[in-house]
Specification:
Blueprint lengths: L5 H33 L6 H4 L1 E6 L2 E6 L4 H5 L3 E3 L2 E3 L9 H16 L2
Antiparallel strand pairs: 1-2, 3-4
Helix pairs in contact: 1-4
Amino acid sequence: MRFCLLSDINKEVDKVVSEIDEVVDRVAQDLLSELITVTPVQTGALKGAWYIEESNDGWIISNNMEYASIIFDGQRIVGGREYGSKKLPAGISPILKKYDLIMQQELAKI
């Protein structure tokens, strides 16, 4: 019969938390990299405006260019005028879904 000490349990919990943090960090950085890669370029301002910051709840990836939402919401026609990018016809939703799945798969391994 083996007895676990509370310190052994705490070490294992710390190890799991550390592994989770590593996965979240890596997937967030990979997502940022892909978003930068797929961002359409006309002047480069939109591509260069991506940033990532850590918060209490995890990572925040954002782009503060005023027209970013027009590009990342996907292609659409409003009042006979076309908005969005041919490079990202569905916007960034498919990319976000892809990385959500990647995150779930990586965390399930822990």
